[in-house]
Design a protein that fits this description.
single chain, about 500 residues, Thrombin, subunit H, Pdz3 Domain, 4 domains, six-stranded antiparallel beta barrel, 10 helices, 27 strands
Length: about 500
Amino acid sequence: MKTTSLSRFQRVALAVTVTTALASAAMLSLPKNAIALSAPTAAVGVGVQYGPPSFADLAERVEPAVVSIAVTGKTDVSAEMNGQQFQMPQFPEGGPFGDFFRQFGGRVPGMPGAGNSAQREFQGAGSGFIISADGYVVTNNHVVEHATEIGVILQDGSRYEATIKGRDPKTDLALLKVNTDEPLPFVELGDSDSARVGEWVVAVGNPFGLGGTVTAGILSARGRDINSGPYDDYLQVDAPINRGNSGGPLFNNRGQVIGVNSAIYSPSGGSVGIGFAIPSNLVRDVVAELETNGKVARGWLGVRIQSLTDEIAESLGLEETHGALVAGVEPGSPAARGGVKPGDVIVSLNGEKLDDFKDLSKLVAKAKAGSDSTLQVKRQGETHKLTVEIGNMPDDGVKVALADDAASDDTAKLGVYLSELTPEARQRYRIGKDTEGVLVTGVQQGSPAAKAGIEAGQVINMVGQQTVKSPEEVIFQVKQAAAEKKSSVLLMLEHNGMQRFVAVKFARA
């Protein structure tokens, strides 16, 4: 057989020819919607570099509609105790996401100190984006919730005064209205449901007050629950998001907003590549209601629920862990009137299966108040269908205050649920206008609070010798008592105009 010997020059030329041919064939085989990355021409002494497609055109197109938000406001701060300033946690302590920092809008409010609270003026900075030419701006609720003055600064430096059109603390969204007669640049909300894990995303905002900044990454995961509220369904991204990016938009590669940057995971407070954005499809629904009503009306069932673990399912004789375990039913609530009982396992609502216990909160919230819904529940080995009339979610926003939130490691667990004394709460529980304190909206069965005889509808006037007017103040004082290694905490309770002191023993972890 005849062999041919090629010179070094010929071998190199042949290799280049083959490589070019293979590259051409690969390009022809690409799907129509694929983005081809072209290799830059190598110059003498310059190494060949490859990278993602440029985001310059996208950034140039969307940046004019992304704004910086300057906030002036007042918040409560506590007197310093033992040389340290106590700060209110932004997420429940003791949970798997206890290190999440939600308040990265440029300010951190202080923990109100019972009996020593004072008003402090602060200045903060966040981000937002314009969604209409007439000046509607979307941002996070926590960026503007304590604001007395709001300024919106555009990319070209022009500044406008803005007012709050509506806020929704449960999803951490707020809608602002810029006062202007001129049409403003705006961006569109895209379809977050169509966003796929691994796709490029671009975050634009105002980190550390530096002004408009663009960062890029990929969509890392969907449906993240970070224990920030009952409707958690976050997009997780690795695009760098820092303090001040809060409320800014997250774009897909078509320049559509698919999320609102709202939270980060960070041991240090800076970006470590784990950020969270509220999906645009949720944003669209919330913003529409805020524009129309100034708040979001949600359905209400009146149950306290928890996850169904393998151990609990086995003890109840259930083969699956799908559903929501009813830990308590609020007296007089739609659930109570419909026959729901503690210990029931709700497995579906209107035929829609509950894969996770938090699915129930989301489905009920979407239901229209006054409408009848069918619950399928499992009770003592039998399946029942219950019809309940969905109610309006109360405005007082029941808070899980001392059931688990106040507990971590050795911290006390009292097992009570608290809320502010709002006009609606006063009317519901028939509490006089002169009564001051914090409303008990529920008590966990078997908890120290239950053993002490505390019931829903009672008002906590004092913790120890300190008067309290908010759930946060109760939490703070209870934690202080626990930190001092006391075996119990003294509460003054008021009910039907009568006051009495009750000592509640701590349950240690």
